[in-house]
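Class prep. Sample record?

___
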Amino acid sequence: MSTIVTAASGQLGRLVVESLLARGAAPDSVIATSRDVSKLADLAERGVRTAELDYTRPDTIAAVIDAGDVVVLISSDAVGQRVPQHAAVIDAAKAAGAARMVYTSVLAASTSPLILAPEHKATEEHLAASGVPVTLLRNGWYTENYVGEIATARDSGVVAASVGAGRLASASRRDYAEAAAVAALDESTAGRTFELSGDHAWDFDEFAEALTTVTGRPVRYESLTPEQHAERLRGFGLDEGTVGFVVALDGNIRDGLLADTSGDLARLIGRPTTPLVEALTAATA
């Protein structure tokens, strides 16, 4: 039996492989996959098996998965194309007789109005219909999603958003990766759903304080209306689709859709989640 990690050359997938090794998985029991295997050369040098796996090419998927394997399906970053891409991996896992799948979904995927939820909900439904045992990891917000704000805050002293007083229970990407490794190695997680998020839900005044610490200069939060936010984003040259997505996501945060603190993530990884300042500092190192 092997543990297969899809998209292992990506930011989350690579950390999942690292976490598997750190938790005692033998390197030759792990198969790290990517569309571009050359990006996995350093892992291969450490004894990890590598293979090509392209979500858009079912033949590459079928060539990797064997009976009894555990497949960690890292959700695709191709928004709007995720469902068929994920379905290709699920179908291949079913055909091969995989023992289990671990899927990185999103918080409350089956019921949430979060703009990111529909594709994850459809994937979860496809997983359920497949009959392959599954562990659902419904990931919340990654603190690293805001690393780009550090340079802006350092230059301007301002972090601007239309989230209002909304809160985010974020955790580091490494926290979520460790959870995926734990789930992959623990058969008892089969059939379970974990709502994963950080231990503390912070608001953007706290975020500004964190940026003040990280940048070494005073940073304040400028609260925008959705209309002001959209106009500012257009001024940066963003297309209307991207503008609409970003403003809608801030609206979701304003409505508290990413604020839940279930404690599942800390319990799964056996330690507190990474605090906001620590995660931002590590991401800039």
The chain has a mean pLDDT of 97.
